[in-house]
Amino acid sequence: MPLESGGTAVTVPCVRSFTIDNPVGRIVIGVVFGTIVGLLLNLLGASPTWILWLGMPGYLYLRLMTLLIVPLVFCSVAQGIASLQELGVSTGKTGGMTLMLYTLTTLVAVAEGLAITYLLRPVWMPDVTADELIHATPATLAFSAEPIIGTLELSDAAGSTYFNQSSLATLNFLFTGAEDLVNVTALSYLRPGSVTFTLDPQALVGPAGVMVGPVSVVALSASGAQVFALFEGVHGLSLTDPASESSAGVSIAFANLIYQIFPANLFGIFTGVSTSPNMLGLIVVACLFSSALMIVKASGKEDHLSPVFNTTLDVTQLLIQGVVRFTPPAVGCLVISAVASNPLDELVEGLRSLGVLVFGCISMMFFHVLAFQTTLYTLIARRSPWTHLKGMVRAVVLGFGSASSAITLPTNMACCEALGYDPSITRFVLSLGGTISMDGTALYYSPVIIWMAAQVGIVPTAGQVVVLAIIATLTSMGAAPTPGAGSAMIVAIWGSVFGSTPVPPQIAYYMAIDWLVDRFRTACNVTGDSFVCGMVNAVTKREIHQRDGEARGHGAAAPMSSLDGAKELLPVEAGSEGGQV
Hints:
Residues 1-18, 127-132, 245-250, 557-569 and 571-581 have low confidence and may be disordered. The strands form 4 sheets. Strands 4, 6, 7, 11, 12 and 13 form a 6-stranded mixed β-sheet that branches. A 3-stranded antiparallel β-sheet has the order 3-5-8, with no helix packed on it. A hairpin with a 2-residue loop joins strand 9 and strand 10 (209-210). It contains 19 helices and 13 strands. The protein has 2 domains: 2-125 and 280-539, Proton glutamate symport protein (Orthogonal Bundle), CATH 1.10.3860; 130-232, Immunoglobulin-like (Sandwich), CATH 2.60.40. The protein is globular, with a radius of gyration of 27 Å. By secondary structure, it is of the alpha+beta class.
């Protein structure tokens, strides 16, 4: 189904015949094949070794994507900041207003994603807490120089039920503000339905001191299946430090956030904890480094690094496109591993909960466009948002079909110019938006990470949610506007928030439907960019008219044309004449 854009026929991928030649069709075939094979292995009780090797290609795919995400994000941020200088954003009033609007809409999108996640939490994650079933004795662990002993006990355990090294082999403790899990395998099974553990005091001290606060515990069997989990609650477990209880120190979670923002090791940001990159530190260092590079360039010195960043970004995107070609078999292998290694009831519950959350996120994307963006457009542009939306149909359809903001950019510009927006403003605002404005992506990152954590019994702390929101905002602004990069970002964000905790196998469920959600995200991104373009255009024109009116009142020369006035308000491109953008 061709769409005409500026006299050129554009084919929308989503309306092509659904065949094996279509990448989406191949992904669906991989999902179906993986589900069938996984169910057969599950019903036949296949050996974990078989499941491990059948899922290996999928996990190698994730490792390759994680490998490439560091140069992708670093060079994307560096190139984005460099492009701001080339467009003269720092000196142009229009550039500052555009940046402010893009930042505002991205922050609101992240807040909307978190809001819908916790609003629907009783639906996608039934509120049946583990502390109703499990008691910690003692409930408060007091830190000391000696080994700390405690007991976890099921309150409803049958009198003849005993845990052993097979049914309960490992306790994983996650202390407040910690990046690493504490794994305890030296356990004692003294009473029915109970397990006694011993903690090494050295494992309870982090960079900021003793990791006091609530403690999350996940018990695993010898096969890796979750036996039970214990989180903060009435009967929850917590760690205190009697030696420092009276001190009013800074929150450990906030302190660890500061440590991530300002890392001590430059190269450590690329590896982070257990080979997971520190995304927050990576982005901050990239911003600082690129800003310093801009100052050096402005002083007249020759720039040798920007071409290196640009070339590295091009090579990284080319490699990612090569890895993305293997998405269908990789997704199929991940689905095999996830379906075969989990009980069928947990599989059904996981898919149901993800479906509820995805439906909520898509609904919130519609809210973001049809409620928030339209209201903001009405208040700032003082025009009907529905006229704007009607004129953007071609760009939205193309964005939904291609799942790429970069491919949609020319059509988006054509639609905005057809609505009467100044071409110079349109080119500047939409080009910048294609680099730093990804509202749909920002909205979706946090819910997916929180859902994945819930599947392995992790409830993010308030500090982790804050870190997640910040990283989601920054990574969405540095995300590549091409399809297929979302999975790599999810893996990288997971490592930044939860440290050494392995990526849950349930990520396969997310990847199985990402091809569909990606289209809604792109449509939201494209529409949001066009709204900002309309708002900047309206404000710029009002300032031009106001200035022309003042000039006529003072008997000045004839007023400037709209385009000439826009050029004066727009930033000046480096190395150009007459302020052309």
